[in-house]
Design goal:
heterotrimer; A mainly alpha; B alpha/beta; C mainly alpha; A: mainly alpha; C: mainly alpha; about 70% helix
């Protein structure tokens, strides 16, 4: 009584084959993606030649968000070899790194006015801000979720001189700071803690 | 995870931005409210005593009641985040009560006004400039020489001196007034010993305590200090404990902690006291010689006569007297607001005599500290009398709220209105401020310079711990500025440009008086210490004065012909009503009734039957002076002939939390003088069931233990013998008999061990501390200071009455109050308190059931709860035998902390978003913090270098926290006590919290 | 002894015609049904959205009762999902002839019930948007679900059961779909053709088919027992008095089958009428269904008794209090609703008159459904309400939101089922045919 005679004689028609192929392919792809995925590890530096004179206009060429003042870590921390803690004063004594107060900047820049027009332009911005008692609103680059407690001091003690670079990258070569590691991602923390075989208890950071 | 971090969450990062804008005050705070801070705003000038991420502590003094405890204010990034006790302060020795801690919510109260308010022609208020306000005040003052009056509630201190001088300069009158002034006690001291002051009581030294309605653990006198003393004498160490008897028609928290409650007929305590004195004097006289002069006066008070007046058996009275006399030294106290009836003065005098004949005066009752509580109620009446006569043109009300705290029947509001120009310094628009013409919001004590002298030998300092949250102005500065502008004598009083200088000058003099080499150093030390504390509080020997003979007791009289005596009961949470705008105190369940967010009427079960009312039915209470409504709470701890309604509710103003919340029981009271004080227990009340209902928001489920051994108790005799609970029960003959054979026992043990196998693997095998806790129920009084401490420390949200109805309170530590006995007539009613928090079980039922490891066991023995991993299946909550896991059914964190209350949030603790489970963490952030510090200093943790918030706050020192692996630690020592037991031990969950059984005098209960 | 089927006067052609006839263009009644289930579903969806927005607080959770109507309904639907596989697989293996006409409907019911149940874990958790954390998947945080947790077992149990029962249903459909394919035209033909997987009914295909079907049946059988055992462990693994019972696995499986058969009756009796299948689904079938119901009903009766007995015999005060309050506590009404509806009502089925009286049977089946829902409600809510610490005791009262979700779940289930029986043969054509003797020449015997 079956009138229609399908093309295929096998139990699995070729429609089914298509389905199987498609589905299987997709599945494999997904699994592969999931398994192979890892948090973005440290990328290589910008090849931007670190020149002494950069104008704010150049910042477009750099990675990372443009700051209200082109504060150059590569000059301060790099060429002038200033200690990180000179500005980030509480990084090694507290869980918080500490944002340098305007006073800290002015401590030097009352006298240092910059060598060339571009630097002077930036420093003038700073001086005006100081004059108008208007703190500079820096754009934030590194975030941690609020349920994470990251004590900077412990990590600096543990990692020593290279501590800051471990997460923040080598700012001494960054005309403009950008996010080298995805510190927001727990994977980044765990990888490091695993490599060094240190505490991975949840309540070490989450409480 | 954005849900994890609510908009108004203030963590370190947010703090940084806030602090950057310090000075701009609240305006800047309400700024950045994004989940993540997008901008980093630096300080203009760094603040050298504030390192971001590290707490700075400032010493200060508490002004939530007249006891003036010492504070350590913890500040983070320039914001006060918690109030803790000052360890060197003689009054509170590092501990603090709930009301004290809630002071923080006075500082951050969202209803504080932003500037001076002046009443317009149309009666509304308009905010004006400070200069404008000052000028206005000055002109008014200029126009009214000699017709100025000042009403101040601020405790004695430099400010008081300034205020006095300022007032005198305008030929004005200064009235100092404290609602709970304990005038009867003071007047009695005057009469019996000729000393116009309140005595101090040494509860720690007392071997037997009888309180005639003095709620010394709640509102009476200096509660925290008294609680510490009480815990020392009544808490069990090894010797017998001080038997405590509570004589009152109502069993309040103090009564619940007594070994026996003598339920007397309202208003007859004085008769009992005199009778006891008489018996002691006639039977075994250890009294000073001059006491014999009292024989004639006391002779009339025989046990037989007293028995039927007081409603206690003759033998009972004799027993009371003998026990009181035999234990040396003993202590009797009286004068609580709850029993402040027309005979309160006689009662206090009688108790003075009782102490005197028992030889306690000078040992446990000390005079000479010069403790006063304002000028008393009489002064208030005089002041308002002057209003009536129109003698006052300008009135300055500072730190007082008479229009709330005085009975309506006295027409105080109307009489207040007769004053031409009324100025209030209230920071929140309270009843008095609403009726004033000019409001000059003062700074909160945590924002200002000041000092306070609660008693001789204690001079506490206050300093600004942060920039003012609202643009108030120190009333001291206002006085100085007005003084300058007024010129003349007023100007001569204003000896400094600002109050800080004025204060420092005063202290320079103090330094000179004490022959300090360097006044500046003296000041600095005092500031660091929190003030000046003399070693011993002065004690002056006293003798009976002739007037002592005037004492006589016939039983208090009552207005009206209602069927029941009305008891206006002071409660630990609300006290005189000053705490009514603090969410913490509103949500904190009343230690006695466990009711939150609303007032109630306590009715004895028999009375309830008589009136045919059930819990929650609204009673209409009527006295000759007024009528209020209150939902019934059926309470076995009250005299059948009395109905108690708590004080402190029913504000008509005072901010969003307090306004129109419940009814004010003062409306039922007469204002007429009970010679020198306001009689709070002076009316008969008639109760009419209205048939309307209002659910009472109580946090109690079933208040009987059903023999489940949650709150264990053993008689003092057994405890002294050093019996363990098991031994005690065996001796009593009802220990559950062991049915298991040896082999079965072995099997069970093996099973128990095998269950902890995973504890031997991985990180768990390493050497870690194991955190544990003990709670000594013989010391715990149920005062709930730990609960508030936990709210403050762990950012617990208040959920509000509606949610409490549904059992959704978020109290990580709750005080369970179980009743024992009291079911049959004559059987004594006993209350037992158990602080119940996460037991951090070693074999926790909540851990294996969590599908995502949000609940797991940390290597250091904590029962970890990882909020950001929690998906909210709530299985852990179901499986917890102690029911100490709390779920965020809504985004409570969004509702609970309206700006600027969010500034109180502790940046070290994650604020939980909706949909996650939370619970006591044993203050894991403090543990980790201490471990960080230790690691940074390359040292091991020291026992006692930190503790949990609850243990730190507890005025009785009932809670001990520490590492149970350290044999030298305090917690181990405490846990070794034979009284130690675990709740639900049979479940084999291995709690880390050990309770020490309560110890009571079970002999001769009434 | 499938006499009834033999006596039926139909021919193969009749069967095909009748069954495929059920797929004819629907009438007004069908659309009304469709509309009502859709509305129910819509209400459920709206409720869920509100819960998603504000949090679970709207629902009637009163700690310590942290699970309530949602979990109750979850277990209810998982339970429903049992009769299907039981009837189609186990009875198939037992060669029980009467299953043939009903098993398609019950299988469909199974699949849709499990689909409904599967929604509830998501509805019920606090942070629905991260429900997938319950699944094991590799991630950079090196975090895995806790395989000790019964809730994780649940995830596996349910998904396995869903997969197998769906395969079983779809596979069983092949020949019938092919038959339908042959009767329709246009795009329908394409669709059915696809689902027919090129079935043309050759002997070779039949051989493969029946083998595979046998194996599938064998595979599905243990699941009937395993799934609900696992679900029961959601509770039995907890230490709550009233949950912590060794009897729970068989107790729940019996309950599941009971509720499942109940639901089958509730669905078939009206369906039979609506689709005019009276001559196929006969008293004979209902009689047998009734017997099955009676049997599991008795098992349940025993389980109830046992629960109380154990509570008493254990001498454990917590257990005793819980069961005392289950019967006489604040939720006594629910407790008795469960016992009467399940244990006692089923006893009526001893009488054949009732077993074959469809109205009576229908009413009973409704009672059973309600009773079984209450069984879960009582076990969950009343046990949680009064466990170890009396101070924390509380009574839970459901809110509109609970009912909204419950209604929605019926809408979701109803929608699928309604669509199903209009688009696929609700009676298995092939197997019914197998019951019919080969047509003989006229005038024979």
């Amino acid at each position: 009584m079956f009138t229609a005679v399908p093309k295929s004689t096998s139990l699995f028609g070729d429609q089914m084959r298509k389905l199987v192929l498609l589905g299987g392919g997709a599945l494999v792809a997904i699994i592969a993606a999931v398994v192979l995925w890892r948090p973005s590890s440290a990328q290589t530096q910008d090849p931007v030649t670190v020149a002494r004179t950069l104008t704010a206009a150049d910042t477009a060429a750099f990675r990372g968000p443009t700051q209200p003042i082109l504060f150059r870590h590569d000059l301060h921390a790099g060429q002038f070899k200033m200690q990180c803690q000179y500005c980030h004063y509480s990084a090694n004594v507290s869980s918080e790194p500490g944002i340098p107060s305007m006073q800290t900047c002015m401590g030097c820049h009352l006298v240092i006015a910059g060598t060339d027009s571009t630097n002077q332009a930036e420093i003038t911005k700073l001086r005006n801000a100081w004059r108008d008692r208007k703190p500079i609103e820096w754009n934030r680059i590194h975030f941690l979720a609020r349920h994470v407690h990251f004590p900077h001091d412990r990590h600096i003690k543990a990692l020593g001189a290279t501590a800051c670079a471990t997460c923040h990258g080598d700012v001494t070569r960054m005309p403009q700071v950008f996010k080298v590691n995805n510190v927001t991602n727990m994977g980044f923390c765990i990888t490091c803690h695993l490599e060094r075989g240190v505490n991975r208890d949840c309540t070490a950071c989450h409480y | 995870m954005s849900d994890q971090t609510p908009d108004n969450k203030l963590d370190r990062r947010r703090f940084l931005t806030v602090v950057g804008a310090t000075g701009a005050g609240a305006a800047a705070l309400s700024g950045c409210t994004t989940d993540r801070v997008q901008k980093l705003i630096p300080y203009m000038v760094g603040n050298e005593d504030q390192i971001p991420g590290i707490a700075t502590y400032y010493a200060s003094s508490c002004t939530e009641c007249a006891a003036a405890c010492g504070l350590h204010v913890r500040t983070r990034e320039g914001r006060a985040v918690k109030l803790e006790g000052n360890p060197v302060h003689p009054v509170n020795r590092g501990t603090i009560c709930s009301r004290g801690q809630a002071g923080l919510q006075g500082l951050y109260n969202p209803d504080r006004i932003a500037g001076p308010m002046a009443r317009q022609a149309d009666g509304t208020f308009k905010q004006i400039e400070w200069t404008e306000a000052i000028t206005l005040l000055v002109t008014k003052l200029k126009a009214a020489p000699g017709r100025v009056a000042v009403l101040s509630g601020q405790a004695p201190g430099t400010f008081d001196t300034l205020l006095e001088g300022w007032t005198r300069a305008q030929q004005g009158t200064l009235t100092r007034w404290e609602p709970f002034g304990h005038e009867p006690l003071r007047l009695a001291s005057q009469r019996v010993f000729g000393r116009d002051e309140l005595p101090l009581h040494d509860f720690a030294a007392a071997k037997h305590i009888v309180s005639f309605g003095a709620d010394f653990l709640e509102t009476w006198h200096t509660p925290v200090e008294q609680q510490r003393g009480f815990a020392q004498s009544h808490g069990f160490t090894q010797g017998p404990t001080a038997k405590t008897v509570y004589v009152s028609p109502r069993m309040d928290l103090t009564g619940m902690n007594a070994d026996a409650w003598v339920r007397v007929t309202p208003g007859t305590e004085a008769i009992l006291a005199l009778t006891m004195a008489n018996i002691i004097l006639s039977e075994r006289n250890r009294a000073p010689a001059d006491a014999n002069g009292l024989r004639g006066m006391l002779g009339g008070y025989t046990a037989e006569k007293a028995a039927q007046q007081v409603g206690v058996t003759v033998d009972k009275i004799r027993q009371l007297a003998r026990e009181f006399a035999s234990a040396q030294p003993s202590l009797a106290v009286a004068g609580g607001v709850g029993t402040q009836h027309r005979e309160a003065l006689e009662l206090c005098a009688a108790v003075h005599l009782l102490n005197y004949v028992a030889g306690n005066v000078g040992t446990t009752v000390k005079f000479g500290a010069g403790v006063t509580r304002g000028d008393g109620y009489a002064a208030i009446e005089r002041l308002f009398g002057r209003f009536d006569k129109g003698e006052v043109a300008v009135l300055l009300v500072h730190d007082a709220n008479p229009l709330y705290a005085l009975p309506k029947s006295g027409q105080f509001a109307e009489r207040f209105a007769k004053v031409g120009f009324k100025v209030s310094t209230a920071a929140v628009m309270d009843e008095t401020a609403m009726a004033s013409d000019l409001v000059l919001p003062s700074l909160h004590p945590l924002e200002r310079w000041d000092d306070i002298r609660p008693r001789a030998g204690v001079l506490g300092l206050m300093q600004p711990v942060m920039e003012p949250v609202f643009a108030g102005r120190h009333t001291g500065d206002v006085l100085l500025q007005t003084g300058k502008q007024l010129g003349g004598t007023a100007a001569s009083v204003a000896t400094a440009t600002d109050y800080k200088t004025y204060l420092q000058n005063a202290w320079a003099l103090e330094a000179k008086r004490r022959r300090a080499a360097d006044a500046v150093q003296f000041w600095r030390d005092a500031l660091q210490r929190g003030g000046l504390f003399d070693v011993a509080s002065p004690s002056a020997p006293v003798r009976l004065s002739a007037t002592a003979q005037l004492t006589k007791a016939v039983g208090a009289t009552f207005d009206g012909d209602g069927a029941y005596t009305l008891i206006a009961a002071p409660t630990l949470t609300m006290s005189d009503g000053r705490g009514a705008n603090r969410p913490w105190l509103l949500e904190l369940s009343d230690p006695v009734t466990k009711i939150t967010w609303w007032h109630w009427a306590e009715v004895h079960p028999e009375t309830a039957k008589e009136l045919d009312v059930r819990e929650g039915e609204i009673l209409e209470l009527t006295t000759p002076h007024g009528t209020i409504k209150a939902p019934v709470y059926i309470y076995p701890g009250i005299h059948p002939g009395a109905i108690a309604v708590p004080l402190g509710w029913g504000h008509t103003a005072y901010g969003r939390y307090a306004q129109d919340r419940g009814a004010n029981v003062l409306d039922l009271l007469g204002a007429q003088d009970g010679n020198g004080f306001l009689p709070y227990q002076s009316t008969k009340v008639s109760a009419r069931p209205t048939g309307e209902y209002r659910q009472v928001g109580k946090t109690e489920g079933n208040n009987r233990q059903l023999g489940r051994g949650i709150a264990e108790m053993m008689p003092v005799e057994a405890a002294v013998k050093g019996l363990s609970l098991r031994q005690f029960y065996e001796q009593e003959g009802h220990a559950e008999h062991e049915v298991n054979t040896e082999r079965e026992q072995g099997a069970i043990e093996g099973f128990r061990e095998s269950q902890l196998e995973q504890r031997k693997r991985g990180g768990y095998a390493e050497e870690h501390p194991q955190w544990g806790m003990t709670v000594d129920l013989s010391r715990c009084t149920g005062c709930s200071a730990c609960v508030t401490a936990c709210y403050a420390e762990n950012n617990l949200p208040t959920v509000g009455e509606e949610e409490i109805y549904r059992g959704r309170e978020m109290t990580w530590i709750r005080i369970e109050r179980f009743w024992e006995g009291g079911e049959r007539e004559g059987e004594p009613l006993e209350a037992r308190f158990v602080p119940m928090m996460c037991q951090h079980c070693d074999n926790a039922p909540c851990e294996p059931v969590c599908p995502v490891y949000a609940a797991y066991h940390t290597v250091d023995g904590l029962n970890g709860q990882v909020y950001n991993r929690c998906v909210g299946t709530r299985y852990c909550g179901n499986n917890c035998p102690y029911k100490v896991r709390y779920f965020n059914w809504y985004a409570y964190n969004k509702k609970a902390f309206p700006e600027p209350l969010n500034l109180q949030l502790n940046p070290d603790v994650t604020v939980r978003g909706r949909g996650v489970m939370e619970k006591c963490t044993m203050c894991v952030h403090r543990i980790r913090g201490a471990q960080h510090t230790a690691k940074l200093e390359d040292r091991a943790l020291v026992d006692g270098e930190f503790t949990t918030a609850c243990a730190q706050a507890c005025p009785s020192g009932a809670i001990t926290f520490g590492n149970v692996k350290d044999p030298a630690s305090k917690v181990v020592a405490a846990a070794r006590s034979p009284r130690g037991y675990h709740v639900f031990e049979e479940l084999n969950v291995r709690p880390a919290v050990t309770y020490l059984a309560k110890v009571r005098h079970t002999e001769g209960q009434s | 002894m499938a006499t009834t089927a033999h006596e039926s006067t139909q021919t193969h052609a009749d069967v095909t015609r009748d069954v495929i006839g059920t797929l004819s263009a629907p009438g007004k009644g069908y659309y009304i049904l469709l509309a009502s289930v859709s509305t129910a579903l819509l209400i459920g969806i709206i409720t869920f959205i509100i819960l998603l927005k504000d949090g679970l607080g709207h629902a009637g959770y009163n700690p310590p009762v942290m699970w309530s109507v949602f979990i109750t309904t979850f277990v209810f639907w998982v339970g429903i999902g049992h009769a299907g596989t039981l009837i189609s697989a186990i009875l198939y293996l037992f060669r029980s002839p009467w299953r043939t006409v009903v098993y398609r409907a019950t299988e469909a019911m199974t699949v849709f019930a499990v689909m409904t149940a599967a929604l509830f874990p998501i509805v019920h958790i606090g942070r629905q948007w991260i429900f997938y954390w319950l699944l094991p998947y590799p991630n950079a945080r090196f975090l895995w679900p806790n395989f000790k947790s019964p809730l994780v077992w649940d995830v596996f149990a349910i998904s396995t059961y869903f997969t197998v029962s769906t395969t079983f249903l779809v596979f069983g459909l092949i020949p019938d779909v092919a038959a339908v394919r042959d009767h329709v035209t246009g795009w329908r033909k394409k669709v059915y053709g696809m689902l027919a997987l090129g079935w043309k009914g050759t002997d070779e295909q039949w051989r493969h088919y029946s083998r595979a079907y046998l194996y599938l049946a064998a595979l599905a059988t243990p699941l009937v027992l395993s799934v609900h055992s696992v679900v029961s462990w959601d509770f039995a693994m907890g230490i709550i008095p009233g949950w912590h019972g060794t009897i729970f696995a068989p107790y729940f499986v019996a309950g599941a089958i009971y509720s499942g058969v109940g639901m089958v009756l509730t669905l078939l009796i009206p369906l039979r009428k609506a689709l005019k299948l009276e001559h196929m689904i006969t008293d004979y079938h209902f009689d047998n269904l009734g017997k099955l119901t009676l049997f599991v009903g008795c098992v349940l009766f025993y389980a109830y008794g046992m629960e109380y007995f154990v509570a008493w015999y254990s001498g454990n005060t917590f257990e005793q209090t819980t069961f005392w309050r289950r019967a006489f506590g604040p939720m006594w009404w629910a407790g008795w609703a469960m016992i009467i509806n399940n244990a006692f009502v089923s006893q009526l089925l001893w009488s054949k008159r009732i077993r074959t009286n469809l109205t009576a049977l229908f009413v009973i089946s409704i009672f059973i459904n309600i009773g079984m829902w209450f069984e879960r409600y009582v076990i969950i809510v009343s046990s949680l309400g009064n466990d170890f610490d009396p101070w924390a005791w509380g009574v839970m009262t459901p809110t509109m939101y609970d009912w909204g979700i419950l209604l929605g779940s019926f809408g979701w289930f109803g929608l699928w089922f309604t669509l199903f029986f209009k688009h696929f043969p609700i009676v298995a054509i092939q197997e019914v045919k197998e019951m019919i003797p080969m047509p003989r020449r006229k005038g024979a015997h």
